[in-house]
Design goal:
By secondary structure, the chain is an alpha/beta fold. The chain is about 35% helix and about 25% strand. It is built from eleven helices and 13 strands. The longest helix is centred in the last third of the chain and has 13 residues. Bound molecules: uridine 5'-triphosphate (UTP).
Length: about 300
């Protein structure tokens, strides 16, 4: 029987240009979603799925990311002195959340290039890739379901979500056929950000992958594609079309996903998450209602 995967790779070396100037001196993965940086939600999700070995692929401005998962001795001492155990616990929580590792990408030459930088750390085992742009609600299961399928099928597994056809051109889109399982499809082809109106389906790729290590060899051979970047989707397309290392399957996610990659969706994500919080929701909900009633 295959051993269960243990390693998660989180690419966080993009330039985050849609969030400038906020991301001028800070990676977009450090943007707060309510009161936690996006990256912490993603690391918590990996850990909850049993992936305690986490590699962050970092770019310029990596210090904030590294510091977030390290001791903050001065702050901890100060909170300790004040007896503020609640906040102290919040600060300390991320220190030992996972076994954190870091590798630099150098030039941000695309998501595929960022994943390739994980090769030395990952070795010859399947591994997960999680993108900080997509937050999956902790109450809904996705990653562990994908890991189960990876083990059972010995294939590469991607996460898919049915989206409105009007927005399909903003995603990587899959051509699929059904399998013996309701929430699993076989991926026959993939296209990264198809021209509007040309998407082959409304199955969009969202930012969770469980990859066979063979993806590294494929990425080495993958030429820059859309945006002159080495696209992970192009490598996966090759693996799907040629059935490399078991081919590619998709787990179709129907749960709650928050897109924090662009400004409008980021604002919506914060509101959605905050109204459900016990500490913020009771005051925020009536305020929000009154605010929206008064909107012209
Ligand atoms: P995006 O394309 O959404 O990130 O990549 P970006 O390029 O930083 O964003 P914009 O469009 O300029 O605002 C998806 C994920 O892949 C990472 C990003 O950090 C993000 O988590 N990425 C992207 C890298 O690590 N390296 C790259 O070269 C490109």
């Amino acid at each position: 029987m295959a051993t269960r995967i243990t390693k998660a790779v989180i690419p966080a070396a993009g330039l985050g240009t849609r969030f400038l100037p906020a991301t001028k001196a800070m990676p977009k993965e450090m943007l707060p979603v309510v009161d936690k940086p996006a990256i912490q939600y993603v690391v918590e999700e990996a850990v909850a799925a049993g992936l305690t070995d986490v590699l962050l692929v970092t770019g310029r401005n990596k210090t904030a990311l590294e510091n977030h998962f390290d001791r903050a001795t001065e702050l901890e001492a100060n909170l300790n002195l004040k007896g503020d155990t609640d906040r102290l616990q919040k600060v300390e929580y991320s220190n030992d959340l996972a076994d954190m590792h870091y590798v630099r990408q150098g030039d941000p030459r695309g998501l595929g290039h960022a994943v390739l930088r994980a090769r030395m750390h990952v070795g010859n085992q399947p591994f997960a890739v999680l993108l900080g742009d997509d937050l999956i609600d902790a109450r809904d299961v996705l990653l562990s379901r994908m890991i189960d399928e990876q083990e059972a099928r010995g294939a590469t597994i991607i996460a898919l979500m049915e989206v409105d056809p009007a927005v399909a051109h903003m995603y990587g889109v899959a051509t699929v056929e059904t399998t013996d399982e309701d929430d699993v499809v076989k991926v026959l082809d993939l296209v990264e950000k198809p021209a509007p109106g040309t998407a082959p389906s409304n199955y969009a790729i969202i930012g969770r992958y469980v990859l066979q290590p063979d993806v590294f060899d494929v990425l080495e051979e993958t030429e820059p594609g859309k945006g002159n970047e080495i696209q992970l989707t192009d490598a996966l397309r090759n693996m799907a079309q040629n059935d490399i290392a078991g081919g590619v399957y998709g787990v179709v996610f129907k749960g709650r996903r928050y897109d924090t990659g662009d400004r409008l969706d980021y604002i919506k994500a914060i509101v959605q998450l905050a109204v459900e919080r016990e500490d913020l929701g009771p005051e925020l909900r009536p305020w929000l209602k009154e605010f929206s009633d008064n909107l012209k």
